[in-house]
Q: What sequence folds into this?
């Protein structure tokens, strides 16, 4: 195998004292909901918000004095960029990071804040890799690959050492897969320590590149995904060899599952995870029967989610759960009606967040109007209670947030 347990133990010595030995905590509420004993390895607590620091330190520490003086270059959509930039700055190594045009602004700015030269080039990570290779050749820089490098894989494998030390009774480890660096390292470490343990990989449905590779399928990837950290079209060759031998299965998760997992972690565990970091939870939620009754760990591999995306995910989750709803109400356009509506909603226990009073642009009679009201509620049944109260008072009311505009709640 390209990487051994001894390589990972050596990497653990190299990175010791330079990164946080992250906690692996049990999640009681998610464990109860998912019917398994669930442990979360919180790599989102690292200084740069992701596990990528481990492999970056191990690689950077291997450079010769001449290589350090010339500098390094990496391509990344964000987390590898920050890991390399942060520790290169700490070690006094000049760093250039090539990032795709779609890289989240927060990750671009954080990378720059660590002193790196950031080059935005390419509409995909693969295009960024081509640009980075060319700059490395032109300027004599050492290329630090985000996943397809034995030293990087060994660095990521230290997560597996820590997990098995903290929770030797684990039966399954669920790991997100982009290029395959983290799952390869963890699988190598965990399987060497406990051969019976099962390693399950997770990929975003839009980017099933490793799944396709190991099943000899045509490589088809692309689309907008919340899990940009694992949106990789071309998986590694080093990592593929390890995954084919040590990873039991790869689960593909869709965007709604990733969104639901981000919400579950934030609300029930008070953990902020980016899409890639929540992918393991998404897989367990989507296939609970596979993990029922087992001692399971998953890696919250990153927490660098744009706050606007996080806000949208949380708000959409409230809508899906019926804890926020948008109602459209037909009224006669006369004084006092809006106050009556507010009274009915308040008496029913709802809280009005926003009101949009439309007279001119809706297909209603001139003496009538339509009101769109966004309300906070306890749950979906509470929405139905409020709508029933409105209809009992003579107001035709429709729920717009989860049903057809013309379908009344019954």
A:
């Amino acid at each position: 195998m390209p990487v051994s347990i001894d390589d990972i133990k050596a990497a653990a010595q190299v990175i010791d004292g330079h990164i946080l030995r992250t906690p692996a905590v049990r999640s009681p509420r998610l464990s109860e909901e998912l019917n398994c004993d669930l442990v979360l390895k919180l790599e989102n607590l690292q200084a740069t918000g992701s596990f990528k620091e481990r492999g970056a330190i191990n690689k950077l520490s291997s450079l010769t004095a001449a290589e350090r003086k010339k500098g390094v270059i990496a391509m990344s959509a964000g987390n590898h960029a920050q890991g390399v930039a942060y520790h290169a700055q700490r070690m006094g190594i000049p760093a250039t990071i090539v990032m795709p045009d779609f890289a989240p602004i927060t990750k671009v700015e954080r990378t720059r804040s660590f002193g790196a030269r950031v080059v935005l080039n390419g509409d995909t990570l693969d295009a960024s890799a081509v640009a980075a290779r060319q700059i490395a050749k032109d300027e004599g820089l050492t290329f630090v690959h985000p996943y397809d490098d034995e030293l990087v894989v060994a660095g990521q494998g230290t997560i597996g050492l820590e997990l098995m030390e903290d929770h030797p009774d684990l039966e399954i480890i669920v790991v997100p897969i982009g290029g395959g660096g983290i799952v390869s390292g963890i699988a190598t470490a965990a399987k060497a320590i406990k051969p019976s343990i099962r390693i399950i990989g997770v990929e975003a449905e839009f980017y099933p590149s490793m799944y396709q590779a190991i099943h000899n399928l045509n490589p088809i990837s692309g689309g907008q995904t919340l899990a940009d950290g694992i949106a990789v079209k071309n998986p590694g060759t080093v990592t593929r060899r390890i995954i084919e031998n040590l990873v039991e299965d790869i689960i593909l998760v869709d965007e709604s599952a990733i969104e639901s997992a981000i919400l579950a972690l934030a609300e029930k565990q008070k953990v902020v995870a980016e899409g890639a970091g929540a992918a393991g939870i998404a897989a367990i939620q989507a296939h609970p029967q596979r993990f029922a009754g087992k001692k399971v760990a998953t890696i919250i591999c990153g927490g660098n989610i744009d706050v606007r995306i996080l806000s949208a995910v949380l708000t959409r989750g409230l809508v899906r759960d019926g804890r926020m709803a948008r109602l459209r109400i037909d009224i006669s356009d006369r004084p006092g009606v809006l106050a009556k509506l507010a009274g009915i909603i308040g008496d029913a226990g709802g809280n009005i967040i926003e009101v949009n009073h439309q007279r001119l642009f809706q297909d209603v009679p001139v003496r009538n109007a339509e009101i769109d009201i966004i309300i906070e509620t306890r749950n979906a049944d509470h929405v139905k209670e409020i709508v029933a109260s409105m209809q009992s008072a003579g107001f035709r009311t429709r729920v717009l947030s989860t049903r057809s505009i013309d379908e009344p709640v019954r």
